[in-house]
Every structure is written in C-alpha cells, then in structure tokens.
Amino acid sequence: MGSPGDPPEGTSEGVPGGGEEEYRSVVFDESFVRAARLQEFSAQERIGDHTPAVRRRPPMRRGLSRQALVLVVLIAVAFGTAIYMGVRHPYQTPVAKHPEPLRMTVIPLAPQSRVPGSADVEDLYAHSPADQFPIGADGITLPASRRTAHFSDSQIVTALTTAKDYLVESALDPDVLTGGASRSVRILLDPQQLDQFDQSFRSPTADGRHAPTGWLVRFDPAQAELADTKIRVQGTLAAAETDSDTLEVSADHTFVYALRPTGSDEKAAASLFTVRRELHFRFDRDDLRMHQAELLVSYVQAGPLACAEDATNQLHPLLAGETAKAGGPAGTDPFATGSATSLCGSLAASAQPKL
Q1: Cβ atoms within 10 A of the Cβ of 58, count?
Q2: 312 and 206 Cβ atoms separated by less than 8 Å
Q3: 92-97 long-range contacts, Cβ below 8 Å, gap at least 24?
Q4: Model-level pTM?
C-alpha cells in the first residue's frame, strides 16, 4: 500500500520517487514568478468578471541600477576634468629654444724654431709633454654625475656621453682627420644647426661661423697623414644645469697627433701636432632624447702651423724639420665687418719634444 501522500494510482513504474523527481531541479522562486508574462486570475476574479483564466502582464520597466548610474556619473566627471585640464592646466609648456649659431675661433700656433722629428714615434712621445697622456677615447673621461634640480642622473650621463661621442668622432676618427668624412660628426648635431654645418663645408669662410676646422679636426690629406693611430688625449668634461629645461657641458681637451708627409714610408721622420679644443655644448630635453647636441662655442689652438696659412678649411701642419715662413697672420680688413679678426700665436718650445 502506498503512503497517504501518494497518488491513488501509485507512483510511476521505474521512476524512483514518482514523477516529482522530474521537477525537483526546477526552483520557481519569487523572481521567476514575477518575471512570468502570463498571470492566472484568482477564482473570485474569474467568477465576478467572467474573464479568461489567465491574462498577459505588462512588460516590467527596467531602470538603471544604482551602480550603473554611479559609473555613468564618474565617467562624465572624469571626461569633464580631462577637458578642463587640457584647456587650463597649471604647467607651462616649455618654450622651444632655437639653437644659436656656433661661434668659432681657430688660432694657429707658429713654432719658434725647426720642428723636431723622429722615425720612432714612441720615442717622440716619450720626450714630449704628452708622454703620460691616455690613448684615444680613454683620455676623454666622464666625471662623477649627480642629479640636478630638474635633471636626473641618467640625463646628466646622457649629456656627457653625447659630448664625448662628439669629441671622439670629430677629433679621433682617422677618416675625419684625413678630410674624407664628416657625416659621423653631423648626425650628432641638433637638426637646426645642420644648415650652418653644411654651409661651412660647402663654402668655408673665415667669418667665425663657417670654418670646418671649428667643427672638427682635419688635416690637408695632400700634405700630411697619421704616423700612428694611437692619438694621445687629456682633458676634462663638466656638466651644469642652466635652467629647468637646459643642460650645458663644457669640454677642454688637448689632442696630440703623430704626423708624416703624405706617401712617405715608415722610416720617414714623424713630428707631433697639438690641438687644444675648448667646446661648449647645450642640451634641451629633445637633444637628450635624440642623443644630439647644440655646439655653442668652439675655441681651437693648433700647431705647429704657419700664421700665413689659411686654417679655415683644413689644417696645414709644419712637419719634421720645417720652420715657419717669415710673415705674420693673414691680413685683417677692419672695413669688412662680416669677417673675423685674424689671430696667430707662438708655439712654446716647451710644447715640442725635446730630442
């Protein structure tokens, strides 16, 4: 016999627990009932109004939830703030500074006597003030860097490294020294100085603005060649902040080259040629990012040279056994306001090897 709760005909055969087992996984909660589109009238309503057993309910009106409304408001506020800050922000945009034209001075140093020479380059260096100078780029050392008020340590190092790269490319590269290349120097300059650089090599002029020897060191290839690629170098680099958007680097280095007459063999006597370069670089934030520099000042003293020789385009060194020809520097016309005053110095005997 079945239990009091079982249907009169008993449970279905083969189905444990009867047919209710099929619907135990379906839960008709309150939200399910409310969402139903059909609603059954009560017995009283069907008797009184003679209406159908069911009626269709109107669709539920779904508004924005509180969380969605808050999200919309936050997005609107953020968008409005971004527009306001874009129009009126408290930070001033840095004013772009146009690079100044490079101011350059090249001073020939004439020897007081015959230029000393030796076939042994090492012996030549050993008897000169450059005996203890480091070789090549090792002589261009970076100072200890410290951050400034507006520039980080890495930015200071970038400025110093770029200045060093310029010195290496413009005074140590054999292709540059022999007058055969200049691109490696050019690509390190701020783009706004390239017109002046190109004009200097296209139309060299002794006007203090357009002398190739103010940009780099190069010798007349028809006259002299390197007797040794181990160029001796000594000097200093220093960086300083000039304003919140500008760094300046000053470089003061002495380069000593061993030269021989072009086309001569290794047994020919070599002589030493000295170039002192004082360069001043400026870097804005774009220059630091692009690894470029603005060259502001180039002050060069070089010898042994003859004062009468034009050192604007190339250096014409006096080689072993030669003496400076009689005569002073090239004439200066005080009425030609566009030209620079010609200068010439004397190369002290103490600056030459004592053989």
Answers
A1: 6
A2: yes
A3: 94/244, 94/245, 94/284, 94/285, 96/284, 97/245, 97/246, 97/284
A4: 0.72
Residue 197 in contact with residue 189, Cβ under 8 Å?
A: yes
What is the DSSP secondary structure assignment for residue 317, as one 8-state letter? B
Q: Cα(185)–Cα(3) distance, rounded to whole angstroms?
A: 105
Most trustworthy range by pLDDT among 25-29, 144-148, 220-224, 241-245: 220-224
Tokens of 121: 């380059």
Q: Residue 68: its pLDDT value, please?
A: 77
CA distance 120 to 49: 129
Q: Which tens digits make up the pLDDT trace of 279-290?
A: 999 999 999 999
- Provide the 8-state DSSP code for 244: T
Residue 113 CA from chain centroid, whole number = 46
pLDDT digits (tens, 9 = 90+) for 160-171: 999 999 999 999
Taking the CA atoms of residue 323, residue 315, residue 339 and residue 97 in that order, the dihedral angle to the nearest 10 degrees is -150
At residue 94, the pLDDT reads 47
pLDDT in tens, 297-323: 999 999 999 998 899 999 999 999 999
Average pLDDT (134-147) is 94
How far, in Å, CA of 255 to CA of 223, rounded? Answer: 19
Residue type (1 letter), 31:
S
Say yes or no to pLDDT of 17 above 80: no
Of 222, 223, 205, the residue nearest 214 (C-alpha): 205
Task: Give the C-alpha separation, 245 to 151, whole Å.
Answer: 8
Radius of gyration of the chain (CA): 43
Residue 91: the pLDDT is 41
For residue 295, what are the contacts with CB-CB under 8 A and spacing of at least 6?
102, 166, 189, 193, 215, 279, 280, 281
Nearest Cα residue to 147 out of 139, 159, 138: 159
Closest CA to 216 of 298, 135, 103: 298
One DSSP character per residue, 282-312 reads: EE-HHHHHHT-BEEEEEEEEEESB-TTS--S
For the chain, percent helix, then strand, then coil, each to nearest 5? 30, 25, 45
